[in-house]
């Protein structure tokens, strides 16, 4: 076969198809596409509901999470404030103790007031160590517990009052002598 | 757009008349689509499944049909995609491309009418040795007598590419027949 041209060839179909298969095929299509459609829709609707419910659950979960976080942050802020408030007396006590150490380095002080001051200082030092422990404990505890610690604030206030009473017992001359021996610190202004 | 197509489309868009519309759609295009698929797939049962899937997909995605194109072009596109997917599945089951080609050539013999002329059977075997694109263009142009413009819309290829593909396909087929025909 030398000069073969397929364009000249008759276009015949060599394949055959069973009779009435189109009818069967159409019924299958209708069955799958339309008859099953309500089921599909139902499933979709059901799943749609589920999805909707899931969204509600998801939204509610998110709200709960944010709400919890908000309250936790609020508590933490309160705790921080409490800690900050508690730190002030501790700082004051530190300053006082520094001042007292300086006083110890002045052997000239022999007045009764001075003796009283020394005994008070010892007491203050005890209080200071107790307060420091207290503040360390506050920094370590959880924010929730901070409120409980805040209740211990009256003790600190009481100690402050004691210091104030102690300072009241000092004459102006004693205080000025203390001031001379100590480096001026802005926090000392609090006690004037 | 043909009047019948417009009627089918309008019926398919209404839920009440969907079934009737789908039946009209199948009545209008099932034969053309079946033979298009059958020439690519060769096996009747598989071709029937592919045709069925084509109509189900057409029904399910009818909302995506843009009415600026013709209905049969859209249907041909779905059918071609489905058939090519099926062919790929078939090829994956074979170890090599050569095995896949031999499998298709054997399928021609298995599915051909006993009274079929030898030259016609050879022609079908030759078509199965073509690369996919050439096979697709050749069957659409040679058997279904679609214009290059129509084929272009179905397979997303330029008319120039289609002409080149058809030319090479024809050349290869003629060579195959010349080599294999026994007078």
What would you note in describing this structure?
Chain A is built from 6 helices and no strands. Chain A is mainly alpha-helical and 192 residues long. Chain A is rod-shaped. Helix content of chain B is 77%, strand content 0%. By secondary structure, chain B is mainly alpha-helical. In chain B, α3 crosses α4. The mean pLDDT of chain B is 91. The chains are: A mainly alpha (192), B mainly alpha (183).
Through-space gap between termini of chain B: 48 Å
Strand tally of chain B: 0
Counting H and I runs of at least 4 residues, what is the number of helices of chain A?
A: 6
Biggest interface and its residues per chain?
A: A-B, 24 and 40 residues
Q: Please give the largest β-sheet of chain A.
A: none
Q: Could you give the order of the helices and strands of chain B?
A: HHHHHHHHH
Q: What overall geometry of chain B do the principal axes of the alpha carbons give?
A: globular
Indicate the percent of residues in helices of chain B. Answer: over 70%
Q: Taking all residues together, what is the mean pLDDT of chain A?
A: 67
Descriptors for this entry?
heterodimer, A: 192 residues, mainly alpha, 6 helices, rod-shaped, B: 183 residues, globular
Briefly summarize what is shown.
The complex is a heterodimer of chains A (192) and B (183). Chain A has 192 residues and is mainly alpha-helical.
Secondary structure topology:
The complex is a heterodimer of chains A (192) and B (183).
Chain A: H1 21-35, H2 37-104, H3 112-140, H4 143-150, H5 153-169, H6 172-181
Chain B: H1 3-13, H2 18-41, H3 44-60, H4 71-92, H5 97-111, H6 118-128, H7 132-142, H8 148-155, H9 159-180
